[in-house]
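User: For a benchmark we're assembling, each entry needs the component sequences followed by a predicted structure for the full assembly. Here are entry 17's components. Please fill in the structure.
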Amino acid sequence: MNDVFLGLDSSTQSLSAVILDFKNKKILLEKNLRYDERLPHYKTHNGIIREKDPKVVHSYPLMWVEALELLFEELKKDDVNLKSIKAISGSGQQHGSVYLNSEAKKTLSRLNINASLVKQLKNIFSRKTSPVWMDSSTNRQCQEIREKAGGKEAVVHRSGSDTFERFTGPQIRKFYQEDPDGYSNTQSIELVSSFMASVLSGGVDSIDYGDGAGMNLMDIRDKKWCPTLLDATAPDLKKRLPCLKPSDTVLGPVSNYFVEKYGLSPDAQVVIWSGDNPNSLIGLGLISRDKAAISLGTSDTYFGFMSDLHTDPRGEGHVFGAPTGDYMTLSCFKNGSLARERIKDKFNLDWDGFSKALSETPPGNNKGIMLPYFEPEIVPLVLKPKVYRFNLRDDAPSANCRAVVEAQMLSMKLHSKWMGKRPEKIYATGGASKNREILKIMADVHQAEVYRLKVSNSASLGAALRAVHAYYKSSGNPISWSDIVAGFTIPLPGSHIKPDPAVAGLYKKMAILYEQYERNYLP
Ligand code: XUL
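Assistant: Structure for entry 17:
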């Protein structure tokens, strides 16, 4: 008998899906729809829209909805047995916010299969666009909230993170200040994750502890909305926020729209969605402290599991809720793929050429170092993009390729110290994890064994596995997390890369130098 679950991932650039058969430990389908290609009428570039001010980065919630419809249309066309799906969960790019008006609740609960989702949902927004995690335009609001809520230490202690430009609270404050009428017409403020779950379940829903922790609004300890932070952010905010719920909450059966139009079972359950990073934690099988993960995506993230809560005293990193009910640590580096790509394009290389450049340059890059802020950076905070080069000519292709990757790895190593014991194993995920030369530098700089996993989208796999966990728990047959991830999170054969102990000393010295450059040159 099949035991089928669906995991979705509404990410910055695409919507992905993983369908798995849990009992047989099999991935049945992986699918990815890129917004730029499949929904070109929104005119996004890499899934986002920019305004004149490069710090403002938004996207269209309606585009995410249209992608959801397109995905189900294609699954139906591909003859996927949608009726066999027992539960669905999902993952959303973190921090982005969706602003709904008073029509939303009613409209979502009465979807009609004779019209498209886009047609029916286009008027439910009190703000047409959503600020997403790449937005860094709220520095003033971050300072205001931090001050009102008792300073950086107090904010980190309460919410698990300092105020960050991309976090939802500062974004809400900016909206309230710049468009007070829009704010007062807003009945509900959702995260990408809770919004997409609302569409699937047909009701305005709840935010899980994992994604809720990325808002600067939730108390990381008691997992309730924090009155001090709410007051510091915007008036009457609590009534606009959904409830906070554990990550294994079953929201209820899927909306009738998807049953009648696409043939899902009326018994298919929607499990609360979470952020992409909490989902990836599960999709990579990080349910204990010995491993860490590095995701090489649009941004690079360094994250791991944490059982006892402690926060970053420098306020650079974050603590989110882990889907297991524990915690996770995360630091986000915005100049990930973006920076690698800028160097690749500057020298007219393709990715093979980029890899070749890495393989023909020595570890340590003959002391050539780059601080690679092509975009404003999150960690360390750099609001004005600038690329610094030391002992490095800007017309040297190979040395620049190595410099950007070594910089990224050194920065991750330095800025993840607060997370505690160094991991012995790192699981690499995200698009660029296919590049072995990048992973070799990762292994050498971190002096850790590096592995890749079979399923490339750890966020949608994690969502599907969370759906399994919640489904069985709610039906009275709970399954342990280690049994949930077993069989799905095995390293890809041949993907293991060992660190070279001979370069450990060199990278240790280089990290000290890199830290000095950061300290001396960054404003
Ligand atoms: C994490 C973060 C990014 C987004 C990407 O804090 O901002 O990793 O979640 O989707």
